[in-house]
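Take a record.
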Amino acid sequence: MKKILSYQLSVLVLFLVYTASSNAQGRNTIDDVKKSFNSAKDLSNSKAIVEVKFSDISLKAQKDFGKTFSTAKDVKWYKADDGFIASFTNRGNSMRSHYDLKGSWKYDMATYTEEKLPSDVRYLVKGTYYDYAITLVNEIKTADKTIHIVHLTDKNYWINLWVCEGAMEVLEQNAKSE
């Protein structure tokens, strides 16, 4: 569980750096996203996230979470430097909901398999990477965007794609070691 949370934290750090840079500069380059992705992987081993009791969470975050995810199961709360993270399952998906220190909602991330990927996103990905298997999807929802990080593999490579608003970019591509 800790390993999954650390991995998903790295994906979210990537997302936040990409979003902040995009807002500041108009459009971030794929090279900047790759650098951010590599930095985020280094942060995934951070001890900056600790599990906390529900009573330690901002009341505003508690209320928003309860209203938004009334069917959530196995909820665990974590404290990070910049806010709170709820880790839980909802409708069969592994989920993370992020709040700032004041309890304002920032974004949600769902992790699921190819079967739950929206058909338009799957069509876009498979249209180019038809010989690759989709192994995992991270769906990040903010107030104004939905971003999919799609993890692909074939017999020689694994690729992480960024898919948002009909655009697709390669975040990372590596050869598999033999």
Summary: Residues 30 and 115 are 27 Å apart (CA to CA). The domain at 113-178 is CATH 3.10.450.40 (Nuclear Transport Factor 2; Chain: A,). The two ends are 28 Å apart (CA to CA). The longest helix spans residues 2-25.
